[in-house]
């Protein structure tokens, strides 16, 4: 085992930096790393993340939050760097494509220089989007993808592909220890109510009794991974021997159509919402499912949480969050009293 293939046991005294630490995946990762004994610094510009996500961690002796945009260089002292900063929902990353590209490229480059400067191991949150509209199914890491370089998703897809290129160049040229994971659709508690991705949209719509907005006929597929499974995979990958650089698919191979997802969410919420159809967004991939043979054989990792079980937990979380958000403000007279 390499010197940096650390024992992630409690009290290990190691320092981890998590960019995007106030986002959906980032806040779960910070929580897991704290539980494993790391000193954790979450770095985030709060563009789609929220301080609410890390509120339970503020005050923890080994946790710090730094509001910072990774497009600007900075100095972080770390043993492990997890580069998660980047808006992940199409709604958000297409709002400011220039910012998305700069976060994916300049931001990742800054983190690579930083990792080099402090001899840290660095993880990159890449994405199944690097496969674009895949001609191979399920997608294996050896597949090079079919991404439109000019469509509205390109700022994200090509940005993430460029980041992968830079990670592997730093590895080849400078011997930097890298871990590149291609993350497939992941869902769970701490997605924002207005995030715009399909699971949170459908759950919020169902709980509010609004129609579920299925794009086109809903026959496109995705494979949804519950967040705890994904975070477990990320940490196992980071702790694995240095030779295991990836790219490595992390996701749940249980493939489902978007229409079926809508039906399951209506059933699990007991909602009376109906389904309405909306136009298909440009370049929306038709099928997506990970081949996770590599993660299974090298990390001994596979998802444990079924879609129904994960949806139930996520629905319960959104139910609590929405009732809190939608509580009427106290009457002025009561508030003064
Ligand atoms: P998210 O939008 O909830 O979190 C992203 C976080 O990054 C937010 O807190 C945001 O404020 C922060 N951020 C964005 N740009 C930044 C910048 N320039 N500087 C500093 N902070 C910045 O998304 P998520 O689902 O938690 O995704 C986290 C990472 O995982 C992203 O890199 C995303 O591309 C990748 N990923 C996620 C999924 C998924 O299904 N959740 C799938 C594939 C890849
Ligand atoms: N989708 C949908 N209704 C919505 C949001 C998304 O039908 O309200 C579809 C979307 O067109 C895509 C799938 O659900 O086919 C997954 O979309 P998401 O934005 O969650 O992730 P991505 O497309 O990046 O995989």
Q: Could you explain how this protein is built, in words?
A:
With 337 residues, the chain is of the alpha/beta class. It has one domain: Rossmann fold (3-Layer(aba) Sandwich). 38% of the residues lie in helices and 16% in strands. The strands form 4 sheets. The chain has a 7-stranded parallel sheet, sandwiched between helices. It has a two-stranded parallel sheet with strand order 7-10. α5 links the parallel β5 and β6. α1 crosses α7, α4 runs parallel beside α5 and α6 packs parallel to α8. The longest helix has 21 residues. The protein is globular, with a radius of gyration of 20 Å. The N terminus and C terminus are likely disordered. The protein binds nicotinamide-adenine-dinucleotide and uridine-5'-diphosphate. The site of nicotinamide-adenine-dinucleotide has 28 residues, from α1, α4 and β5.
- The helix/strand class is alpha/beta
Give the uncertain stretches in residue-range form: 1-11, 332-337
CATH class call: Alpha Beta
CATH 2nd-level architecture: 3-Layer(aba) Sandwich
Beta-strand segment tally: 13
CATH T-level fold name: Rossmann fold
Mean pLDDT: 94
Report the C-alpha radius of gyration, rounded: 20 Å
Shape: globular
Number of helices: 11
Largest sheet: 7 strands, parallel
Q: Proportion of β residues?
A: 15-25%
